[in-house]
Write a structure and sequence with these properties.
The strands form four sheets. Strands 2-1-3-7-9-12 form a six-stranded mixed β-sheet, with helices on both faces. The chain has a three-stranded antiparallel β-sheet with strand order 4-5-6. It has a three-stranded antiparallel β-sheet with strand order 8-10-11. Helix 1 runs parallel beside helix 5 and helix 5 crosses helix 6. The chain folds into two domains: about 270 residues, Rossmann fold (3-Layer(aba) Sandwich), CATH 3.40.50.1460; about 60 residues, PGBD-like superfamily/PGBD (Muramoyl-pentapeptide Carboxypeptidase, domain 1). The protein contains ten helices and 14 strands. The protein is elongated and about 70 Å long. The protein has about 350 residues and is an alpha/beta fold. A hairpin with a 2-residue loop joins strand 10 and strand 11. InterPro entries: Caspase-like_dom_sf, Metacaspase, Pept_C14_caspase, Peptidoglycan-bd-like, PGBD-like_sf, PGBDSf. This is Peptidoglycan binding domain-containing protein.
Length: about 350
């Protein structure tokens, strides 16, 4: 089982507005892959600034998919500008929009990577492999100027507005367009996340912030994504990680709401960037904000119920579950801290 990652970050664009936090995003994500997830240097390919051309991005993605075999895990992270244009090939019959990412050599005459390009590549993933995609870019153009920051360190949106000749194609039709983003299928049902998982830094009607956080510029989404991965050592479900990142962005007044699209419900409850493994250690369970959720919580609650404790088996580690765990620990003369680890599990299930 192989692991491969492609990380793309662009601060220094050719011909359009530069960004400031994208290279830090790539460095941050690379650190997470190595320290939390066991990736090696040779497993990770990086494209930054002038090397992150359209051809290089597509070549690297196609090469990664071409090497894929059942059981392989891959991830792709893009940090840079995003945009939307009116669909030109007629496949976006529902909303009329194509989403795109902007490579270093971006222009409006085809030097961009469309959602259709991703769809064409990702369709070739072999069954039994998994690709996880993170896009820290904008998919449309609501501003971030309402944020209260100094002018020097005010966040920028990672969005490029189309020029007039492109924008005129749908002038006056905006109320009729349902902005779809990379995560949804078109009307024909041909595009979806049936063979990959997609994290998007914002909804399709929002901007992704390029922000000054703790003394450095970062993509706000990538910063908090990595922060919570690091705090949990990667032992966190995708659903819980999404909730934590959303809450952090909301608390710090970034007007963006990250999205997660998975191929099935079970993938929401698995750990990010890896296949579930029967021999991997179970995560520690404890009271957090937002609450931990998942089948492991439900299994623990069912064990407590079978042991005679009054508890609702709902898969949510809330205050009542925390209280019951402490009662169980006290009854069995275990340190009463409300944390479910190997000792609690061994007493509860063995």
């Amino acid at each position: 089982m192989a692991r491969r990652a492609l990380l793309v970050g662009i601060n220094d664009y050719r011909g359009i507005r530069d960004l400031r936090g994208c290279l830090n995003d790539i460095s941050n994500m690379r650190n997470i892959l190595k320290t939390c997830l066991g990736f090696r240097n040779n497993d990770i390919r990086v494209l930054v600034d002038a090397r992150a051309t359209k051809e290089n991005i597509l070549h690297r993605l196609r090469y990664m998919v071409r090497l894929a075999e059942p059981g392989d895990f891959m991830m792709f992270h893009f940090s840079g500008h995003g945009a939307q244009i009116r669909d030109r090939n007629g496949d976006e019959l529902q909303d009329g929009m194509d989403e795109l990412i902007c490579p270093w050599d971006f222009n409006w005459d085809g030097r961009f990577v469309l959602d259709d390009d991703f769809d064409e590549i990702f369709r070739k993933l072999p069954e039994g492999s998994l690709l996880e995609v993170i896009l820290d870019c904008c998919h449309s153009g609501d501003g971030t100027t309402s944020l209260s920051r100094s002018a020097e360190h005010s966040p920028m949106g990672r969005y490029i507005s189309p020029p007039p000749d492109i924008a005129y194609r749908y002038e006056g039709e905006e109320p009729e367009l349902t902005l779809r983003g990379f995560t949804s299928a078109n009307r024909s049902g041909n595009r979806s996340t049936m063979n990959h998982i997609l994290w998007s830094a914002c909804r399709s009607d929002q901007e992704s912030a390029d922000a000054y956080i703790n003394g450095n510029y970062n993509g706000a989404f990538t910063y908090y994504f990595c922060k919570h991965m690091r705090e949990t050592g990667g032992y966190i479900t995708r659903r819980n990680l999404l909730e934590r990142v959303q809450n952090s962005l909301r608390y710090n007044r970034y007007p963006q709401s990250p999205q997660l699209a998975c191929m099935n419900d079970a993938a929401f409850e698995n750990r990010p960037f890896q296949f579930p493994s029967e021999d991997e250690p179970e995560r520690m369970l404890f009271l957090t904000t937002p609450y931990m959720r998942g089948d492991d919580v439900k299994r623990m609650q069912q064990g407590l119920k079978n042991a005679g404790f009054r508890i609702v088996v709902d898969g949510v580690f809330g205050p009542h579950t925390h209280k019951v765990i402490k009662q169980f620990q006290e009854k069995n003369e275990i340190l009463s801290d409300g944390v479910v680890g190997p000792i609690v599990r061994s007493v509860l299930f063995d």
